[in-house]
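[Automated response] Your request has been received and processed.

Submitted sequence:
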Amino acid sequence: MEIRTICTNRKARHEYRILETIEAGLVLTGSEVKSLRAGHASLQESYARIENGEIFLVGANIRTYEQAGRFNHEPTRRRKLLLSESEIRKLTRSVEAKGATLVPLRIYFRGSWAKVEIAVAVGKRAYDKRAAIAERDAAREMDRARKEARHR
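Generated structure:
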């Protein structure tokens, strides 16, 4: 089945340590689906929240669809995520036990179905971020050195 990524939350992997990920369906209106297919979405500043045994995507921006006219949607409305009861219970336990949060990583289409990848994540400290940047720089330097050695 074809997977087509619409948008990713690139900051999430820098700001948070990802513990586990899960795929959830999205409850969308027709104009939201059209806008997503056109690639007009953003996950900046968005998160998932557990309320009354349901999970909602909050703060995700799906731009209005120009041709929808008066039947358009609100761009940053809360959207319900489709998960089984056991998955919701598992996520609830993870968030409560580890002091974690639910962060959306990407929105994509799996075939014709809109999906969102949610991560149970713990915020990184400043020194963790610096260590990750130093590690990435060191790996980049090693790759450059290997490439130069190969071309000699």
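Summary generated for your ticket: The chain has one domain: 3-124. The CA atoms of residues 123 and 137 lie 22 Å apart.
If you did not submit this request, please reply to this message.
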